[in-house]
Amino acid sequence: MTNKALFSDHILITPVELPDDEEFELWASIYLHNGAISSLEFEQGADRHLMRFKFKNTSFNLNFEHYSQSIWINSDSQQDLELLPELYSSL
């Protein structure tokens, strides 16, 4: 089970068990598996990973930071934040 919380500028995601660094791409693909969401690209860094995706023709980022053990979704622009509540409901 995964819990989530909606904030004004992001969605905080709290899985029961955090994925390992090398498993985050698979975890993100499974978590974002939804007909209204399409994955764009995956970027892997030393301590932070990012899955870019589109929801209603708007780009969002699913972020994972290893050291803080944080997973969150944010948008690429301030104007796209209005879609966060709808995305939150879709997840």
Word description of this protein:
The structure is a single chain. This protein has 91 residues and is of the alpha+beta class. It is 16% helix and 44% strand. It has 2 helices and 6 strands, in the order E-E-H-E-E-E-E-H. The chain has a 6-stranded antiparallel beta sheet with strand order 1-2-6-5-4-3, with helices on one face. A hairpin with a 2-residue loop joins strand 4 (48-55) and strand 5 (58-65). The two termini are 12 Å apart. The model has no long low-confidence stretch (mean pLDDT 93).
Q: Summarize this, please?
A:
It is built from two helices and six strands.
Helices and strands in order:
Blueprint: E1 2-6, E2 11-15, H1 24-31, E3 37-44, E4 48-55, E5 58-65, E6 70-75, H2 84-90
Antiparallel strand pairs: 1-2, 2-6, 3-4, 4-5, 5-6
Query: What value does the Rg take, in angstroms?
Result: 12 Å
Main pleated sheet:
6 strands, antiparallel
> How many β-strand runs?
6
Principal-axes geometry comes out as globular
Low-pLDDT regions: none
Number of helices: 2
* Widest β-sheet, arrangement of strands: 1-2-6-5-4-3
- What is the typical, i.e. mean, pLDDT? 93
Strand residue content: 35-45%
